[in-house]
Specification:
By secondary structure, the chain is α/β, with parallel strands linked by helices. It has helices at 12-23, 64-71, 98-105, 110-123, 132-157, 196-202, 220-226, 236-239, 319-333, 342-345, 352-368; strands at residues 5-8, 28-31, 43-46, 49-52, 59-61, 84-87, 90-93, 187-189, 208-211, 229-232, 249-259, 269-272, 281-284, 296-305, 314-315, 338-340. The structure holds flavin-adenine dinucleotide and uridine-5'-diphosphate.
Length: 369
């Protein structure tokens, strides 16, 4: 069998690419080192509940084209992510909004909340935020920073908030309305029946062959020789044998349990924002699909330092790592037949909609020229 493409990684990026290539009559081989498709969006049914095996995944986008695109592969429900924060037993609404401000300070109007934040920001003497701590305090003040951000962030990233880039906290909305929706995007939901079906459909063409438990590095040279074009969605530094040094990633340990009760925490996502609790959040999967099953499945998410052999879940996009990535990117640009993509290939803190957008842009470049 001769193929037009080898796609390394059956995650979202690789699968969108494979689907679009097959639609254009190309033959594609997809390999993944894991024993399942779908990468980090993989979901699996346990006790009738779709379990997000690699952490909570909520689809959200402002882009109608991407929303329509993903809706070809599954029906989405009306789930709106409204996580709550548990700080030493005190419960607060997220993202930071009037419900949070009211519970914390007793303020009722948006102006009162703004005044309170401004007072705390002034007292902290921050002119131009230079790191995550300063950015957070200038957005929401010191009380929220201390109770809801500092502990969570330092656990999640394994670094002091003063040593983290400000952009990470800008992912979260700050709102002066009583609105607990975690995202500002127009479109949001969870695929009814889980995410795996989406990737299954993307890879269902007769022109696509999938091989699982196949690591690209077990025969890299052979693959590069055999396939005219390669789409690589693994770690870019590993592709180049870490020759300039190792990029930093953050890893996670997931601890999943089935509980013999109907409802454990009353919400899909509860964040533990103190420094002492070793996990950052507990996911109760049934609530993503408003499930009424007699049992429940929960997952605790423990952040950990990435070491070789661990799954690299999050890129650490600070200046040092971005500069190192740029060196690898320059090497990648010199390889005419290998396309790098996805969260690991591009070393970017991409959400699913951004991965689909990036994959479709790659497809356009590849096939419209
Ligand atoms: P991946 O899913 O990582 O796929 C890459 C694939 O390549 C993997 O299957 C891997 O096994 C394979 N691979 C790597 N190296 C090799 C090799 N050498 N040989 C063979 N195969 C290889 N996004 C949202 O939009 N909403 C959310 O709520 C959300 N929550 C998240 C929560 C967590 C805990 C995490 C970690 C991510 C979250 N994301 C979320 C982001 C989302 O998971 C990613 O945007 C998306 O899965 C990235 O797809 P990808 O194809 O780039 O990478
Ligand atoms: N964050 C926080 N407290 C929370 C939730 C998030 O301080 O209760 C911060 C933390 O630094 C985190 C960042 O906001 O890394 C982005 O949060 P998001 O929920 O987007 O993280 P992800 O889903 O990517 O893990």
């Amino acid at each position: 069998m001769t193929y037009d493409y080898l796609v390394v990684g059956a995650g979202l990026f690789g699968s969108v690419f494979a689907y679009e290539a097959a639609k254009r009559g190309k033959r594609v081989k997809v390999i993944d080192k894991r024993n399942h498709i779908a990468g980090n969006i993989y979901t699996k049914e346990i006790e009738g509940i779709q379990v997000h095996k690699y952490g909570a995944h909520i689809f959200h986008t402002n882009n109608k084209k991407i929303w329509d695109y993903v809706n070809q592969f599954a029906e989405f429900n009306r789930f709106t992510n409204s996580p709550i924060a548990n700080y030493k037993g005190e419960i607060y609404n997220l993202p930071f909004n009037m419900n949070t401000f009211n519970k914390l300070w007793g303020v009722v109007t948006p102006q009162e909340a703004k005044d309170k934040i401004e007072e705390q920001r002034k007292a902290a003497h921050i002119e131009k935020p230079a790191n995550l701590e300063e950015q957070a305090i200038s957005l929401v003040g010191t009380d929220i920073y201390e109770k809801l951000i500092k502990g969570y962030t330092e656990k999640q990233w394994g670094r002091k908030a003063t040593e983290l880039p400000a952009f990470i906290i800008k992912r979260l909305p700050v709102r002066f309305t009583y609105d607990n929706n975690y995202f500002n995007d127009k479109y949001q939901g969870i695929p009814v029946g889980g995410y795996t079906q989406i990737v299954e459909k993307m890879l269902s063409s007769e022109l696509i062959d999938v091989e699982l438990k196949a690591n690209f590095f077990s025969k890299k040279d052979e693959y590069l020789e055999q396939f005219p074009r390669v789409v690589y969605t693994g770690m870019i530094d590993q592709f180049f044998d870490y020759q300039f040094g190792t990029l930093e990633y953050r890893s996670l340990k997931f601890e999943t349990s089935v509980l013999d009760r109907e409802n454990y925490q009353g919400n899909a996502v509860v964040n533990y924002t103190d420094a002492e609790t070793p996990y950052t959040r507990i996911i109760e999967h049934k609530h993503f699909e408003f499930g009424m099953q007699p049992k429940t499945v929960i997952t605790k998410e423990y952040p950990k330092t990435w070491e070789k052999g661990d799954e690299p879940y999050y890129p650490m996009n600070d200046e040092k790592n971005n500069a190192l990535f740029k060196q690898y990117r320059d090497l990648a640009d010199k390889l005419p037949n290998v396309i790098f993509g996805g969260r690991l290939g591009m070393y970017k803190y991409y959400d699913m909609h951004q991965v689909i957008g990036a994959a479709l842009a790659t497809v356009n470049k590849e096939f419209e020229n």
